[in-house]
């Protein structure tokens, strides 16, 4: 039997604890357009019995990585990894002392390296990403994420992730979405840390890849990374990668550059409710401001198409109360 | 307050309902070695706090499809699909009347088609699997699974799945495993029906693939299937596919032929508790009996290695009480 007065006590307890719904799932987003659009979209597709309802199995959300989940200035972080790796490997390659682009790189002349264009960069990536097993490569990447520091912030690269996007990933997963990375970055580079940083398991990371080859060694089978591209997950490659690796069309996609345009178009072309989002880097004070003329993360055609088609463009400066977890 | 006698009523109810644990999760498996090994393995890796415990995220299980989850005689079912499709497409290809291997095929002379070897088969597969969009192909496959019937049993091909393996898939999933198909079969062919038949979603199906290309049409973007191989998920390709698509090493793998040997070796080479299984087709009465000399699903080297290394070999005749869902 309840004693008299119990009801009052219960009411007091209920009043003291804030209702769960009052906790803002997107606390680092201002109450501006993008946040409202996201909340409305998720509300619609998860409302059982509504015309817009989407079964959990179909709630596929795909995110670009560079410039969308983590920063990408002053250069793609994977390129920073490759450059650091050249220095580590230099003692094993005495020929690099006289051979470009290594000579310039080891002399600290990054400008000369970049002047060599894509050819130089591809050569550096192959020299630093291939020739070892998949397990060795994962270890190398993990070690790098622990020690390397971003030149501007002094933080680990894996800390330079966008707090509002971490909240969005978690919010979507709590609402039955399966969150995927679909990025031009290397798939094995990202998998080495994506689960710890984003809560996205390896099997939900789609990225560019080099060829791997099975080799039987006395100690057992290994997969050797070869210096040859297998798949470029960028631009028109993104719908191809989504189809070949995921096999379902996303109902939500987020990108930030022209390399994401086809992924956004592919997502938009499906039936039913859709969400297409673009992170627009507008915040020179807290991060960087760049778009149409940037060499990294160029956003031009996709920005025009977003405007024309009413996709959600996140103005980082206006729409995010916080950028990185470590600072406002 | 409970009334006197309540406790007795509660006990009666508990006695009347069988305890959940008493329901056999592998009811179509005899209480022979393989079943015991499976139950012991799953018990070990899911026992929290034990030395063999494996976190749910790492509980990756991979299954071959042809001859492991569904039957594969008298020919791979996907080849039956391709042959049926030649007949459907023949009116659009008048040249096939005089052109091999189509001429023989349309005349019903399968022997002459098969005499053409791999070259003929690849040509037939390309002619029947490419030239349409990914969505059109999925529809074509789904229509075929509804209407086509197996020449021996008269059942739909998608009914010729192994009941014991369906139970195993469900049992593993209830124990926190993520179940994947890793098959030499076409990934888009399998995805068209794998979720309905096995409960395995598209993003957990790894298979062979042809090239797809993004094409912008006035009605929107499509992915066009091109007559060119992109990836062969067989033999040494299986560890490559597991690594590129899943990105984690399985702790359990099941196959039935030499094409699965490298997947089993790759699985065995990981640290901690492992389960490697082979379905051995020993039952000429309920299914088919074949192994070392079969043209379909040849099991020779993998059978020797299984014996040498103590992997689990399922003797279909002795170890399964039921083969297909529709019959014992």
Give me a quick take on this structure.
The structure is a homodimer of 328-residue chains. Helix content of chain A is 40%, strand content 16%.
Query: Could you describe the largest sheet of chain A, including whether it forms a barrel?
Result: 7 strands, mixed
Instruction: Return the string of H and E elements of chain A.
Output: HHEHHHHHHEHEEHEHEHEH
Structural class of chain A, please?
alpha/beta
Note the quaternary state here: homodimer
Number of DSSP helical runs of chain A: 13
Task: Walk me through what this model shows.
Two copies of one chain form a homodimer. Chain A is an alpha/beta fold and 328 residues long. Chain A contains 13 helices and seven strands. In chain A, strands 4-3-2-1-5-6-7 form a seven-stranded mixed beta sheet, sandwiched between helices. In chain A, helix 7 (134-147) crosses helix 9. Chains A and B meet through helix 9, strand 3, strand 4, helix 10 and helix 11 of A and helix 9, strand 3, strand 4, helix 10 and helix 11 of B.
How is the secondary structure organized here?
The structure is a homodimer of 328-residue chains.
Chain A: H1 6-16, H2 33-46, E1 60-63, H3 77-89, H4 102-106, H5 110-115, H6 117-129, H7 134-147, H8 163-174, E2 178-186, H9 187-198, E3 205-217, E4 220-231, H10 237-246, E5 252-255, H11 261-268, E6 275-280, H12 301-309, E7 312-315, H13 316-319
Helix pairs in contact in A: 3-6, 7-9
């Amino acid at each position: 039997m309840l004693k008299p007065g119990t009801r009052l006590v219960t009411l007091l307890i209920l009043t003291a604890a804030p209702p769960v719904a009052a906790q803002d799932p997107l606390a680092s987003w201002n109450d501006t357009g993008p946040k409202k659009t996201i909340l409305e979209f998720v509300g619609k597709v998860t409302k059982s019995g509504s015309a817009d309802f989407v079964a959990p199995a179909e709630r596929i959300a795909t995110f670009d990585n560079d410039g969308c989940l983590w920063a990408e200035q002053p250069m793609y972080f994977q390129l920073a990894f490759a450059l650091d790796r050249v220095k580590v490997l230099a003692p094993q390659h005495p020929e690099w002392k006289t051979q470009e682009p290594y000579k310039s790189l080891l002399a600290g002349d990054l400008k000369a390296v970049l002047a060599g264009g894509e050819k130089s960069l591809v050569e550096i990536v192959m020299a630093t990403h291939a020739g070892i097993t998949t397990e060795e490569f994962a270890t190398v990447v993990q070690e790098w994420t622990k020690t390397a520091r971003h030149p501007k912030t002094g933080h680990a690269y894996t800390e330079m992730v966008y707090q509002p996007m971490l909240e969005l990933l978690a919010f979507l997963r709590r609402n039955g979405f399966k969150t995927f990375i679909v990025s031009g970055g290397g798939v094995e580079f990202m998998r080495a840390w994506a689960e710890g940083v984003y809560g996205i398991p390896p099997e939900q990371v789609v990225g560019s890849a080099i060829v791997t080859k099975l080799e039987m060694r006395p100690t057992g089978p290994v997969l050797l990374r070869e210096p040859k591209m297998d798949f470029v997950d960028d631009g028109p490659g993104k719908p191809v990668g989504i189809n070949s690796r995921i096999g379902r069309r996303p109902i939500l996609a987020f990108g930030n550059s022209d390399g994401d345009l086809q992924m956004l178009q592919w997502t938009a072309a499906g039936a039913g409710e859709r969400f297409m989002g673009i992170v627009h880097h507008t915040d020179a004070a807290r991060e960087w401001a760049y778009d149409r003329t940037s060499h990294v993360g160029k956003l031009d055609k996709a920005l025009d198409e977003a405007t024309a088609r009413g996709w959600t463009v996140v103005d980082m400066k206006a729409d995010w109360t916080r950028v990185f977890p470590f600072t406002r």
